[in-house]
UniProtKB/TrEMBL annotation, chain A:
Entry protein name: Dihydropyrimidinase like 3
Domain Amidohydrolase-related: 57-447
Compositionally biased residues, Polar residues: 507-530
Lineage per the UniProt record: Eukaryota, Metazoa, Chordata, Craniata, Vertebrata
Pfam families: Amidohydro_1
InterPro entries: Amidohydro-rel, Hydantoinase/dihydroPyrase, Metal-dep_hydrolase_composite, Metal_Hydrolase, Metallo-dep_Hydrolases_sf
CC per GO annotation: cytosol; growth cone
Annotated organism of origin: Myripristis murdjan
TrEMBL record, chain B:
Name of protein: Dihydropyrimidinase-related protein 2
Organism: Myripristis murdjan
Record has Phosphoprotein as a keyword: yes
Pfam families named in the record: Amidohydro_1
Gene Ontology process terms (BP): cell differentiation; nervous system development
Lineage: Eukaryota, Metazoa, Chordata, Craniata, Vertebrata
Length: 564, 568
């Protein structure tokens, strides 16, 4: 039967294998969608299809950690469904996508999850996983989150700090959700923007008569993104929950993430194709449809130095992972907001362009990162965060045969005329990029060769993500053990007590009617050199020694010698 | 009245041979004052005969301190903080502070005006030194806005404090804070913020109590400094959006101070107020085995358990990243604290510090060489006067200024103790601290109130000092930015293509979120923080039909090109 074998057995000869840690030359043999052998002079069945890589790079297929395919929106749906979207992904060298399930507030998370599974199972051309967005919060949602983690293969949940009166969560709710996720091994994702201030600013813009797409970015300045990132980090740190900031769009938001990482917070930042590749000056385009095609939240920054800055932070490891947040609408759909920018449906393209764009901006034209780092930020880190590693994100024996032969020199110009998305506009229109996939192999089958797609709807499998990914949770667990709080043992106070009226004052300890899900005390002890639980100095001694302390003057003593 | 000169006592006063210290310079001169006002400064002054004369012997004479933050006789659940306006201002004067600014705290539901009148009445009858009043905004609706206008226009209030903590009591939402800041900016006042994330504090309090931690250590454990820094960051963001000057009260931690310092470097108009307690002690005492002592340190935001905090805050005060100091003096006695003996969240909050403020800063900052005497005057008096529009009547020694002066002895040492302090409470949080530097003579309204260690204060002699809006020190920049930041829509033809049909359910955002009308009455005054960016937000794109970026740009690699030559 061996001559019937076509795509199930495949040999790549003479490739340079690029993982996130090293590159080396070897042949790869795969069978039934898995990598079976790596090495030289492999013994493989006769008649197997062989691809000559001619020394080109073979990299793990990209993982686009953030897509919104076929997303329902006020009775319509984004123009790229799971077929169209995953085809575009494959065309760009991405062999797995992670889509967001968005339950309507008030509806069941599980039902929404089932709906998305059904859509994706029918149509996806590549493997996929799902994040579930938590758009409201109560005990039954908590139960559903628990079920999703335990039985449904979901380990990441997004909450919104924007979209006031709709998706937006209060700080107390964030605290409770983060606490719950930390206990159950989930990753807390946040859409970080201050929705309260945005609502005020939107009202102000509209009052001033600014109704076009420029109002979108004017009402969502990057400070509001940075503020929300800061707040989310504070809450995650309090609850000892790993945090993942989706769509890092501005320099200030990225700075907050990198500062927090330097202080030891477990936080990951996800810039998207759009923020790495273009900027928000287009919101001022005279062409309404073009300006509207850039509308996404948080918005693209009008500061044109932003993409370069984010690429640098991605290269340095301050940002870790890239998605596209691909969520495309037609011009007619965007035109719902033609008289009011707040009504423009939000989302940009980017699933197809992601890999080539990062290669172009960060590797080939600037030398910001090497090919190994490129693999890390386009694939491996995502697999680690989602607990899919090393099945995904690595070329190793036993891993899925999702591979890309990468042509580092081919040059192409992005245009809506040739892209695989159904949208009329492409936010990267006219950009010339160096680097592209030559061959894409998904589940051990060739899906792109000689510029021709051979994708099949419905072959994509749901890949369950298990909780407590080591990449995030090793540190979280260690901190949990460290941070045990103890009360001070004291005798009972038995002195006089003032009369007081029992009206509530100050902090109301039981602010939320729900019981706190917290059981484990957690505290960010790694940030401080002193113990919060440690016994203090004895009490009867004067606190400060009466003698003078020697204090170093600010700026140090360096110029004291030069003065003397 | 020359016939009466033999009877002159404190209304006319001459200080000879002083080294006058203002925030900008020090110089030697005599100074003559009459009717509570400085009349002459110079040498060989011609003064009426028989005037009382103090010989300064070259000692420093500085503007009396201004304690920008006190809470004397503050009501709390039917109790009142232990020091009333008489005891509180006596303690202030004993420490060299000749003016205090107290906080009016209206119970939610009570009108600002009636609370303000109540505080005026209390202070007018008891205060021994001049005073002014901040008004706290403890709830938000249209009526409050009108009262704020009245307070600014007719009652000399130019500062309002909002709370980001005390959930379900004083706490305002971000939207409300945005609206309040808009009103404050239009009125020309200063937005003060109590910065702690009250939502998180409430969650943490419950968690700590659930674990059986009920003592004062639970207070600090439930209010970690990150929660303070977060709220500072958030209020800076809202202040930038509204182009409103911001003032953070009670800066208690390094991280909160860092956020302020960073924001100032980015151009935000923000001021930070560390207090005597955060400059002089730390939060390790919350773990004291003596409950009453531990409880005496309870204040919010709490003292940081990090013992390096005071030194750090003193350094930032010295370099100008923090500008002004108060005491937040609001002590309760032990039986009052004991209301929270079984639950730290019920312990009334506040510490002492109005008497110790000047000496403590002198000791920690001047004696150590962090700051000079002029900067000392700036952070204890002048900056406060400038921010709150009292300058140069207060905060400066010059002809025409109020005769509120302190003759300072830089070498006197004393050990702070509850046994000898002027406050009525049993504990002093600085107990046992030895400080160098203190007032020798204190003159308030031209009268000697402290001499030879004896206080000669008069209950009710303190005057209410009205403050005008739009202090230059703050508002020059705010006004310039208001003018700069004009937003324009892009002129476009009408979109006339196809439009998708949609169901009517509202999407994501609700622009008219707040049912109340936005109190920002001048929509023609758009504000934006343009000074932070080099690009224009209103520039139209000329090249919109031309494909962009079709040429390769030359991009410098990160880290610059420095080692390219060494490689080549």
């Amino acid at each position: 039967m061996k001559y019937c074998l076509t795509l199930d057995r495949l040999l790549i000869k003479g490739g340079r294998i690029v993982n996130d840690d090293q590159s080396f030359c070897a042949d790869i043999y795969m069978e039934d969608g898995l990598i079976k052998q790596i090495g030289d002079n492999l013994i493989v069945p006769g008649g197997v299809k062989t691809i000559e890589a001619n020394g080109k790079m073979v990299i793990p297929g990209g993982i686009d950690i953030h897509t919104h395919f076929q997303m329902p929106y006020r009775g319509t749906t984004t123009v790229d469904d799971f077929t169209q979207g995953s085809k575009a992904a494959l065309a760009g060298g991405t062999t797995m996508i992670v889509d967001h399930v968005i339950p309507e507030p008030g509806s069941s998370l599980i039902e929404a999850y089932d709906q998305w599974r059904q859509w994706a199972d029918e149509k996806a051309c590549c493997d996929y996983s799902l994040h579930v967005d938590v758009t409201h919060w109560n005990d039954s949602v908590k139960q559903e989150v628990n079920t999703l983690i335990k039985d449904k293969g979901v380990n990441s949940f997004q909450v919104y700090m924007a979209y006031k009166d709709y998706y937006q969560m209060s700080n107390s709710e964030l605290y409770e959700i983060f606490t719950f996720l930390a206990e159950n091994g989930g990753i807390a994702q946040v859409h970080a923007e201050n929705g309260e201030i945005i609502a005020e600013e939107q009202a102000r813009m509209l009052q001033m008569g600014i109704t076009g797409p420029e109002g979108h970015v004017l009402s969502r300045p990057e400070e509001l993104e940075a503020e929300a990132v800061f707040r989310a980090i504070t809450i995650a740190s309090q609850t000892n929950c790993p945090l993942y900031v989706t769509r890092v769009m501005s320099k200030s938001a990225a700075d907050i993430i990198s500062q927090a990482r330097k202080k030891g917070n477990v936080v990951f930042g996800e810039p998207i194709t759009a923020s790495l590749g273009t900027d928000g000056t287009h919101y001022w385009s005279k062409n309404w449809a073009k300006a509207a095609s850039f509308v996404t939240s948080p918005p693209l920054s009008p500061d044109p130095t932003t993409p370069d800055y984010l690429n640098t932070l991605l290269a340095s490891g301050d940002l870790n992972v890239t998605g596209s947040a691909h969520c495309t609408f037609s011009v007619a759909q965007k035109a719902i907001g033609k008289d009011d920018f707040t009504q423009i449906p939000e989302g940009v393209n980017g699933v197809e362009e992601r890999m080539a764009l990062i290669w172009d901006k960060a590797v080939v034209r600037t030398g910001k990162m090497d090919e190994n780092m490129f693999v890390a930020v386009t694939s491996t880190n995502a697999a680690k965060i989602l607990n899919l590693y090393p099945r995904k994100g690595r070329i190793a024996v036993g891993s899925d045969a999702d591979l890309v032969i990468w042509d580092s020199d081919s040059v192409h110009t992005i245009t809506a005329k040739t892209h695989n998305s159904a949208a009329e506009y492409n936010v990267f229109e006219g950009m010339e990029l160096r680097g592209a996939p030559l061959v894409v192999i998904c589940q051990g089958k060739i899906v792109l060769e000689d510029g021709t797609m051979h994708a099949t709807s419905g072959v994509g499998r749901f890949i369950p993500c298990s909780p407590f990914p080591d990449f995030a949770y090793k540190r979280v667990k260690a901190r949990k053990q460290l941070a045990v709080l103890r009360a001070v043992p004291r005798g009972m106070y038995d002195g006089p007590v003032s009369e007081f009226s029992p009206m509530s004052r100050g902090g109301t300890p039981s602010a939320s009617a729900r019981t706190s899900p917290t059981k484990q005390p957690v505290r960010n002890l790694h940030q401080s050199g002193f113990s919060l639980a440690g016994p203090p100095t004895p009490d009867d001694i004067p606190i400060r020694p009466a003698g003078r302390r020697i204090v170093v003057p600010p700026g140090g003593r360096s110029n004291i010698t030069s003065l003397s | 009245c020359t016939a009466m000169q033999g009877l002159q006592n404190s209304d006319r006063l001459l200080i000879k041979g002083a080294k006058i210290v203002n925030d900008d310079q020090s110089f030697c001169a005599d100074i003559y004052m009459e009717d509570g006002v400085i009349k002459q400064i110079g040498e060989n002054l011609i003064v009426p005969g028989g005037v009382k004369t103090i010989d300064a012997h070259g000692r420093m004479l500085m503007p009396g301190g201004i304690d920008v933050h006190t809470r004397f006789q503050m009501p709390d659940r039917g109790m009142t903080s232990a020091d009333d306006f008489y005891q509180g201002t006596r303690a202030a004067l004993a420490g060299g502070t000749t003016m205090i600014i107290d906080h009016v705290v209206p119970e939610p539901g009570v009108s600002l005006m009636s609370a303000f009148d109540q505080w005026r009445e209390w202070a007018d009858s008891k205060s021994c030194c001049d005073y002014s009043l901040h008004v706290d905004i403890t709830e938000w609706h249209k009526g409050i806005q009108e009262e704020m206008e009245t307070l600014v226009k007719d009652h000399g209030v130019n500062s309002f404090l909002v709370y980001l903590a005390y959930k379900d009591v004083f706490q305002l939402t971000d939207s409300q804070v945005y609206e309040v800041f808009g009103v404050i900016r239009d009125l020309g006042a200063i937005a003060q913020v109590h910065a702690e994330n009250g939502d998180i504090v409430a969650e943490e309090q419950r968690r700590i109590l659930e674990q059986g931690i009920t003592g004062p250590e639970g207070h600090v454990l439930s209010r970690p400094e990150e929660v303070e820094a977060e709220a500072v960051n958030r209020s800076v963001t809202v202040a930038n959006q509204t182009n409103c000057p911001l003032y953070i009260t009670k800066v208690m931690s390094k991280s909160a101070a860092d956020v302020i310092a960073q924001a100032r470097k980015k151009g935000t108009v923000v001021y930070g107020e560390p207090i005597t307690a955060s400059l002089g002690t730390d939060g390790s005492h919350y773990w004291s085995k003596n409950w009453a002592k531990a409880a005496a340190y309870v204040t919010s935001p709490p003292l940081s358990p990090d013992p390096t905090t005071p030194d750090y805050l003193n350094s930032l005060l010295s370099c100008g990243d923090l500008q002004v100091t108060g005491s937040a003096h609001c002590p309760f006695n032990t039986s009052q604290r004991a209301v929270g003996k079984d639950d730290f969240s019920l312990i009334p909050e506040g510490v002492n510090g109005t008497e110790e403020r000047m000496s403590l800063i002198w000791d920690k900052c001047v004696v150590t060489g962090k700051m000079d005497e002029n900067q000392f005057v700036a952070v204890t008096s002048t900056n406060a006067a400038k921010i709150f529009n009292l300058y140069p009547r207060k905060g400066r020694i010059s002809v025409g200024s109020d005769a509120d002066l302190v003759l300072w002895d830089p070498d006197i040492t004393k050990i702070i103790s509850a046994k000898s302090h002027n406050s009525t409470v049993e504990y002093n949080i600085f107990e046992g601290t030895e400080v160098r530097g203190g007032p020798l003579v204190v003159i308030s309204q031209g009268k000697i109130v402290l001499e030879d260690g004896n206080l000669h204060t008069t209950e009710g002699s303190g005057r209410y000092v009205a403050r005008k809006p739009f202090p230059d020190y703050v508002y020059k920049r705010i006004k310039a930015r208001s003018r700069l930041a004009e937003l324009r829509g892009v002129p476009r033809g009408l979109y006339d293509g196809p439009v998708c049909e949609v169901s009517v359910t509202p999407k994501t955002m609700t622009p008219a979120s707040s049912a109340k009308t936005s109190p920002a009455k001048q929509p023609s005054q758009p504000v934006r923080n343009l000074h932070q960016s080099g690009f224009s937000l209103s520039g139209a794109q000329i090249d919109d039909n031309v494909p962009r970026r079709n040429t390769q740009r030359i991009v410098a690699p990160p880290g610059g090109r420095a080692n390219i030559t060494s490689l080549g």
